[in-house]
Amino acid sequence: MAKLGATNNVDPEEIAKFEALASRWWDPDSDFKPLHDLNPLRMSYIDSYINVAGLKVLDIGCGGGILSETLAKRGAQVLGIDMTDTPLQVAKLHALDEGVENIEYRQMTAEQLADEAPGQFDVITCMEMLEHVPEPQQIVHACERLLKPGGKAFFSTINRNPKSWLFAIAGAEYVLKLLPKGTHEFKKFIKPSELTQFARNASLKTLNLAGMQYNPISKGFKLTDDVSVNYLMATEKQASSNEATAS
Description:
24% strand; alpha/beta; Rossmann fold; 8-stranded mixed β-sheet
């Protein structure tokens, strides 16, 4: 595996996709409707593991700030980072309009922040982002560096198999038109076994895997045991032996 630096684990074509759609980020009936529909489920999953109120939370790949702002409204001190400039400006303006002050947005990579602020965060979220970078395992390693001991990182992404191609690309992009065509590339999807290995390599303990299933009739998402398409993962940074002894 080629090792990438802190600033080049970025795909310019992926950045361009989201820059072009930025103005519609907060429209719940736009191309970002799936993110709006997913947001309550993602937040509920996080809530089942930790109360974010009063904690320092990092949202990696925050885009226009849908999850970041929800976390801030729960009382967390939130930093959202992304490499797309226009969505970040949209996120800043929306937070200002909503009067959300306990939130900050910065244009930078997770690797850059890990060099700058290691061990500073209680919670990290990285949702629907890993499938858009060249080296997702580097993001997972950066999460471990950024977390405090005992801190939790939450990921969501898409499995790689024929069913996920059928549902996440053919179905979501071409049949149901939930997403713009070309949003996803099948080869960038990540199997749960691969993400689990990324976490293990980064010394993050996997706490749970859960599937997210879309119902085209109710147009809503629910948690399931089926991780064959969209799925979530909860992980935890283990305290070192010295820290465990001291506590």
